Amino acid sequence: MDLSTAAILWVTLFFMLLGLLTLVIPVLPGLVIMWLAALAYGIVHGFGSLGIILMVIITILAVAGSLVDNLFMGVGARSGGASWSTILVALLAGLVGTVAFPPFGGFIAAPLAVLLIEYFRLRDLGKAWAALRGLATGFGAAIVVRFLIGLMILSLWAFWVWRG
Question: Which pLDDT belongs to residue 4?
């Protein structure tokens, strides 16, 4: 293995592990980082038949993992008693918060939206807290699932390197 190949491997591995870390500490989009690392590896090293197949699988996993947050938090909030309109507003608040106040704006805006809207809708702080707890439970479950997806992406890339 020459120096340039080793450098490509180590740089890609660094970004794969960085992406995996940010799945546990969600400040940066970890799955996107991992996907970009795999894509860059393929572009620089060459895809080949196996690389194309694995890159398609990695892409599907990254997209699915990116949707897990919203799905799990919405289902969690709903199971906690939140209305669908509250969940939709919380999703929009999270998106606006992330864009307007990165990286933590969405983490503050979405839960705050659930709590406030449910409180004003029901005039019951206990039920509003239940909806918020549901959202938080869904968020926790999403972290676990995204981390597992990240491990799958890392494993697929490692298999690509090993077989490529």
Answer: 81
CA atoms 152, 76, 28, 43: torsion sign: positive
Q: Residue 164: is its pLDDT beyond 80?
A: no
pTM: 0.86
143 in Cβ contact with 24 (< 8 Å): yes
Sign of CA dihedral 79, 85, 91, 94: negative
Q: Return the structure tokens found at 13.
A: 């591995």
The counts of H helices and E strands in the chain are 6, 0
Whether the CB-CB separation of 111 and 135 falls below 8 Å is answered with: yes
Q: Domain extents for the chain? A: 3-163
| Cα dihedral across residues 112, 114, 120, 124: positive or negative | negative
CA separation for the pair 84, 86 (Å, rounded) = 5
CA-nearest of 137, 139, 101, 133 to 114 is 133
Q: What DSSP character marks residue 122?
A: H
